[in-house]
Write a structure and sequence with these properties.
- The chain has 139 residues and is α+β, with helices and mostly antiparallel strands.
- The protein has three helices and six strands.
- It has a single domain, classed as Thiol Ester Dehydrase, Chain A (Roll), CATH 3.10.129.
- Strands 1-2-4-5-6-3 form a six-stranded antiparallel β-sheet.
- The chain is globular and about 45 Å long.
């Protein structure tokens, strides 16, 4: 039998056309955790020839969604921030890892780290989620 985190991920991915469009590949999902990767494509670049900050933000936001919903309770982003540390170029594979730091009945706090192939920090995303109390798997 599949774990609740895997069941939630499978259900989320059915309708998540944006994460598919980004080319996100989930490597692992567990309770309060998600690790995924993607390759920087030409259409992801900004006017300076490096990855657009919105792409980094979106990939981290998807990792947050997969991690905070892994408990099976419908959760949405309440507050997020991002800090960019280095650019990424076409062809680089980026890894995004979301870890739960704190969980209450109503909120969750997450660190989401994006690194490049050399394990260098590309950005840090911190997210707070709101837990609605609704069972996502029965919706």
């Amino acid at each position: 039998m599949k774990t609740i985190p895997q069941q939630v991920l499978d259900k989320m991915l059915v309708g998540d056309k944006f994460s598919a469009w980004l080319g996100l590949q989930v490597e692992k999902v567990d309770t309060g955790y998600c690790k995924l990767h993607y390759t920087v494509k030409e259409e992801m670049l900004n006017g300076f020839g490096s990855i657009h900050g919105g792409i980094l933000f979106s990939a981290a936001d998807s990792a947050l969604a997969f991690a905070c919903n892994s408990h099976g309770i419908l959760s949405v982003a309440l507050d997020v921030t991002i800090s960019y540390t280095r650019p990424a170029k076409v062809g680089e594979t980026l890894t995004v890892e979301a870890k739960e730091l704190n969980l209450t009945n109503k909120t969750g706090l997450y660190d989401i780290i994006t690194t490049n192939e050399k394990n260098e920090l590309v950005c840090v995303f911190k997210g707070t989620s709101y837990r609605t109390g609704k069972d996502f798997l029965t919706m």
